[in-house]
Write a structure and sequence with these properties.
The protein is an alpha+beta fold. The protein has two domains: 3-124 and 263-283; 147-242, Chitinase A, domain 3. Helices cover 57% and strands 15% of the residues. The chain contains ten helices and nine strands. The protein has helices at 12-29, 35-61, 69-82, 86-92, 100-122, 129-138, 161-176, 181-188, 208-214, 248-278, and strands spanning 3-5, 8-10, 144-145, 148-156, 197-202, 226-228, 231-241, 244-245, 281-283. A four-stranded antiparallel β-sheet has the order 5-4-7-6. A hairpin with a 2-residue loop joins strand 6 (226-228) and strand 7. Helix 1 (12-29) packs across helix 2. The chain starts with a strand and ends with a strand.
Length: 284
C-alpha cells in the first residue's frame, strides 16, 4: 500500500494512521454501507488525503518566504496549551524539550501550507450583487423562515404543587369571567411582568411541552393548566405567522458569505487537483 509522490516515499503506516483518524466519523455517516465496501472506500479516502497533504507540504517547502520565528514560537505555545500545558503535551506524545527543534520545523512547514491556502483563498473575488440575487431566486426553499406564534403565559414554579395548581385554576377562572389575560398573568405569574408577553417565537425557542401546547392553539385560544420542567402554565396565543420567505435585503450578507466561502473551497480544491495532475504518483 506504500507509494511515492514526486519521489517521496509514503509509508503504509501513514495511510493506516489516516484511516484511523477518519474512521469514527466515516463509519457514523456510512453505517448502512456494506462493511467491505466501506473499508475499501475508507482506504481510498485516506490514501487521497495523505497524497494531498504531501503535495501541499512539498509546495510549501518550495516557498522561499520564511515564517517568522515569533510566529512559530506562538504556534508551539498554543499547541502545548491545547494539550494541557508543556508537561502534559510532552508526556502525551512521548517528547522532551530536546525535540522542540524538530517540532518547530514541522510547525513552520504547517504554517507555510496554511499561508499558501490563504493566498489562494484571498484571490477569490466576492460574488456580485447580480449573482447573489440569482442565487436567492434559484433557491427559494433555502430562505424560508419558520412558522411562529405570538403568545403570553402564566407560570407558577413548583415549590408547593397543590398551591401552584390552585393558583393557576383561580387565574383561569378570572380569565373565564372576563379578566384580560395579560393583567391576570401579571397578578398570578412568577415571571416578571415584562416577561408575560413572549412575543413571536418559532419552534425550538421554548421547551418542547410548552411549544406543543402553544403551536396547537389557534389565535385567541387559551390553554388549560399544563406542566413543564419550569412549573405549571396557562398560555394564550394571540397570532400565528406561517412560514415566510426572508426578504433578500435581510439575508444578502448571509448569501454573500456562503457563496464566497463555497468558491474559496472550490478554488483550493482546484489548486490541489492541479498539483495532482502535475505530480508523479506511483504505487510501490
Amino acid at each position: 500500500m506504500s507509494l511515492r509522490v514526486n519521489g517521496e516515499e509514503i509509508k503504509e503506516s501513514d495511510i493506516r494512521e489516516e484511516m484511523e483518524r477518519l474512521r469514527p466519523e466515516y463509519e457514523r455517516v456510512f453505517q448502512e454501507m456494506d462493511s467491505l465496501l466501506r473499508e475499501a472506500q475508507l482506504l481510498e479516502w485516506a490514501r487521497e488525503n495523505v497524497i494531498e497533504r504531501v503535495l501541499m507540504q512539498q509546495e510549501a517547502l518550495n516557498d522561499p518566504e520564511d515564517v517568522p520565528e515569533k510566529k512559530v514560537n506562538a504556534a508551539l505555545k498554543d499547541l502545548k496549551q491545547q494539550h494541557g500545558g508543556e508537561q502534559k503535551f510532552f508526556e502525551k506524545f512521548d517528547l522532551s524539550k530536546d525535540d522542540e527543534p524538530i517540532l518547530k520545523e514541522d510547525l513552520k512547514l504547517q504554517l507555510k501550507v496554511e499561508r499558501i491556502i490563504e493566498r489562494v483563498r484571498e484571490a477569490v473575488p466576492a460574488p456580485t450583487a447580480e449573482e447573489i440575487e440569482q442565487y436567492y431566486k434559484a433557491h427559494p426553499d433555502d430562505f424560508m423562515g419558520p412558522e411562529q406564534v405570538r403568545a403570553a403565559h402564566i407560570v407558577k414554579h413548583i415549590r408547593d404543587k397543590e398551591k401552584a395548581e390552585q393558583a393557576l385554576h383561580e387565574a383561569r377562572e378570572e380569565i373565564d369571567a372576563g379578566g384580560e389575560f395579560i393583567e391576570v398573568a401579571k397578578k398570578y405569574s412568577d415571571c416578571p411582568p415584562d416577561e408575560v408577553d413572549l412575543g413571536y417565537f418559532p419552534r425550538g425557542r421554548m421547551v418542547e411541552p410548552f411549544e406543543n401546547v402553544a403551536f396547537n392553539l389557534e389565535p385567541g385560544e387559551i390553554s388549560g393548566v399544563f406542566r413543564t420542567e419550569f412549573g405549571y402554565h396557562i398560555t394564550r396565543v394571540y397570532d400565528r405567522k406561517p412560514p415566510q420567505k426572508y426578504p433578500l435585503e435581510q439575508i444578502r450578507g448571509q448569501i454573500e458569505k456562503e457563496l464566497h466561502e463555497e468558491r474559496k473551497k472550490e478554488v483550493v480544491e482546484q489548486f490541489i487537483d492541479e498539483l495532482k495532475e502535475k505530480a508523479s504518483i506511483e504505487d510501490n
